[in-house]
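Lecture notes, part 5. Sequence design as translation. It can be helpful to think of inverse folding as translation between two languages: the language of shapes and the language of residues. The source text, in structure tokens, appears below.
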């Protein structure tokens, strides 16, 4: 293994942000850009994978609440994919969660084929679904108005991010250019 997994340090923030942005760039989360790293309070866990030169090439943040945990971020730099980095990060997380008496780990994903394959091959089962709907003036000038009915005088919506029921997928896809099925993946930590 030509990379190492370790705890995130505050000095990693810029490298973490770059890795996440580049890792998401060719996915349906391409516009989920953060300017500062979200804080994961204890007893959550934040890990990075570093290459031989110390460069951050993978990240995972997991929030813990009671006996449930959620992957808030997982990303691998595109130049370092298919090397087992995400799996190594997950293994470390699972080992830690067992020490915290966490029963389940979940994650939310969209239609990215490689991510869906990875979750399924990593022992996650697909569960509930809902829709992420983007109403964007640049895609269709009428989309924001269709998404947001009544509004304050003097304000004109330009972009909106909305949640919708999976049962409304066909209708949403007719009305909006960017609609994603959001899938919950769940894994028993102790299996």
């Amino acid at each position: 293994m030509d990379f190492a997994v370790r705890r995130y340090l505050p000095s990693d923030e810029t490298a973490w942000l770059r890795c996440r942005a580049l890792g998401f760039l060719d996915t349906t989360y391409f516009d989920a850009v953060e300017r500062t790293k979200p804080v994961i309070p204890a007893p959550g866990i934040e890990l990075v994978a570093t290459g031989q030169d110390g460069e951050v090439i993978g990240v995972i943040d997991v929030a813990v609440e009671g006996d449930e945990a959620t992957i808030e971020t997982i990303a691998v730099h595109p130049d370092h994919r298919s090397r087992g980095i995400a799996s190594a990060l997950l293994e470390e997380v699972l080992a830690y969660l067992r020490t915290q008496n966490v029963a389940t780990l979940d994650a939310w994903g969209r239609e990215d084929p490689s991510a869906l394959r990875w979750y399924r091959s990593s022992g996650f089962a697909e569960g509930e679904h809902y829709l992420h709907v983007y109403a964007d003036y640049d895609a269709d000038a009428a989309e924001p108005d269709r998404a947001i009915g009544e509004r304050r005088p003097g304000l004109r919506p330009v972009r909106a991010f909305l949640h919708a029921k999976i049962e409304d997928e066909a209708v949403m896809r007719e009305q909006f250019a960017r609609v994603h099925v959001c899938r919950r993946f769940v894994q028993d930590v102790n299996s």
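The translated text above is only one of many valid answers, since several sequences can fold into similar shapes. The chain has two domains: 3-102, 108-191.
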